[in-house]
Write a structure and sequence with these properties.
Length: 572
Amino acid sequence: MKQISGIAASAGIAIANAYVLEEPDYSFEKKTDADPAVEKERLETALDKAKVDLAQIKEKAEVDLGEEEAAIFAAHLLVLSDPEFIGGMQAHIDNEKVNAESAVHDVSQTFISMFELMDNEYMKERAADIRDVSKRVLGYLLGIQMKSLAAIDEATIIIAKDLTPSDTAQLNPQFVKGFAADIGGRTSHSAIMARSMEIPAVVGTKESTTSIHNGDTIIIDGLEGVVIVQPDEETTQAYKQKKENYEQQKLEWAKLVNEATKTVDGHHVELAANIGTPDDLTGVINNGAEGIGLYRTEFLYMGRDQLPTEEEQFNAYKTVLERMEGKPVVIRTLDIGGDKELPYLELPKEMNPFLGFRAIRLCLEHQDIFRTQLRALLRASTFGNLKIMFPMIAALEELREAKAILEEEKQKLVNEGQQVSDSIEVGMMVEIPSTAVIADLFAKEVDFFSVGTNDLIQYTMAADRMNEQVSYLYQPYHPAILRLVNMVIEAAHKEGKWAGMCGEMAGDEIAIPILLGLGLDEFSMSATSVLPARSQIAKLSKQELETFAKEMLMKNTSEDVHEAVKTRLSSL
Ligand code: PEP
Ligand code: MG
């Protein structure tokens, strides 16, 4: 038995066998005296197997995950039927008397180099398709078992070096019971997605892929951030009990699903949920969220090879607004960049993607993309209670420009005779320290703020939210963070505006009493955190916490704050 510590990324306990995502050994010996007839037949058999497998994976992905996620497999099937690609391999076998492995390798390499040299991200992506497909065919020739994440059909715990957001989107929660990743932090987007999908996860474990083997029994403790490898009987029983207790706890929380969120002294705060796609709405509704505090629209743009059209976007926004039945829905405009990439936008690689050309910066430069999204939002606005939010605002000019473009698109639609709501609130994320510091100035020009602590913490502490090596500095309770949050809330209230928080800190049980005391109006979090937060808030008194929260601003360290809150909570 071995215990590996990491960062608790998604709550819950999972026990199942490991599937280690590792790069298989594709090495082989090159032959130049092979029998072409035999090798061509081996090639054909491998190609046929790859096609049958891919077709099955594609079909399954379409049913489980939808057309969009399945598109990648359709692209791979196309490569396998490409006459130039396949004909090239056959000719290579005939001409050079090489074995099938060499033919697949050499011809793929030629195509890969050709695509990689093209000055176009979309074509470069085709190189990735060929690399994937040729590995699959080579795998069959070498007798390596291939498994796609979307094709997993038995209870499994995924062990990976890293899981990208698009890997995570492929996971089917029915079978993938949990995952552990060597790298990543609590606010990496794969961790955030795991929470929406209710898959227990531990990230930043550093050594999972090296310590765990395929088939090992694994316990993922997403509550404490621990991975247990090959547990003994006693530990397994203890964790089964812990899982049972957690399920019981969830049933208790579920009783609050239709309750309002109120403190002991009758103060109401809005508990909202964060979503990435309209598919997340079921979780939002089942968990009794009072609204959507953050719709991360960038997921609409991901896992595909071109921008979504105005119509596609309109339909997605309309669905969310309608299903929320008049409850507030904050939709954030495109926030691409950082760990969320869009390969088909030909953006140069950057040294510091989190500090680079992302979100509103990109939208103000590529106004065609921005305007299409704004039109879709404005057209959807009559179907519910829409609030539009701009991400990554650093300076007043950016906010003004974004608002002016929004106004222009609104006028155009009105002139075209389209219906647009006239009560759309327009707000901004506060996730860059500069905006928190001059929140008083911003408050005059927005209807609301939403504090994005995932980024605000990384920018304030200069600690990459994805990097487990510096995760000790990623401190939500650091007095600097608390003071910035306080400045934002005070600035909003002074102008009669509301202040929310949509970073993960909003659902943190240590942070909640402080945020409540500071007067935060809206808390938006992973849907699964809504009920635990409602249960906690029902035991707290806002009035009593006001003085306490101000005291926390004066503490020396994050640890001091943590201790003080724990002591206070234990005395309740
Ligand atoms: C944030 O930065 O806190 C936030 C909510 O945005 P994202 O996690 O998408 O960067
Ligand atoms: Mg952010």
